[in-house]
Design a protein that fits this description.
With 154 residues, the chain is an alpha/beta fold. The chain has one domain: Tetrahydropterin Synthase, Chain A (2-Layer Sandwich), CATH 3.30.479. Helices cover 26% and strands 32% of the residues. A six-stranded mixed beta sheet has the order 4-3-1-2-5-6, with helices on both faces. The model has no long low-confidence stretch (mean pLDDT 95).
Length: 154
């Protein structure tokens, strides 16, 4: 990423959800929650006709996907030994279950990076991409995923 480029970022916030890190030996193995937020960084090989890296108003699809995944949901990993119990509680209407590969901030950041780039690849023809996502669980703790997609700039 050493070549000059225009970048911008957009923060999406207010996604209260719960999860558990079932492998953790400490208190993180218990169900707990945060109001997550995500800052998504974009990069472009050239600005669009309006002079934007990414038109923020065109990100509604990403925002809707974030809400569907993280707003008032319970996140569990696909290999959680209590998955069948969580699925029963979901079927009974006690929780809004989402099964993920990794429920932590690191895994969430990578997932959102994938979603943002799927959206941009389909419509920007390599001009713009998401190069970084920060997933924040509170004002003190965050994790990020950063990479240029292989198709960017081609």
């Amino acid at each position: 990423m050493s070549t000059p480029a225009h970048t911008c970022s957009k923060t999406f916030s207010g996604y209260p959800c719960t999860h558990r890190q079932w492998r953790h030996s400490g208190h993180c193995r218990f169900v707990h929650g945060y109001s997550r937020s995500f800052t998504v960084w974009f990069r472009a090989t050239a600005l669009d006709a309006c002079g934007f890296v990414v038109d923020f108003s065109s990100l509604r699809e990403l925002e809707e996907r974030l809400a569907a995944q993280f707003d008032h949901t319970f996140l569990v990993e696909a290999d959680d030994p209590l998955l069948a119990s969580w699925q029963q509680l979901h079927e009974q209407g006690a929780l809004n279950l989402r099964v993920m590969v990794s429920v932590g901030m690191e895994g969430s950041a990578e997932l959102v990076w994938q979603w943002a780039n799927a959206l941009l690849q389909a419509r920007e023809a390599g001009r713009a991409c998401c190069f970084k996502v920060e997933a924040r669980e509170n004002e003190k703790n965050a994790a990020a995923y950063e990479a240029l997609p292989a198709w960017f700039g081609r």
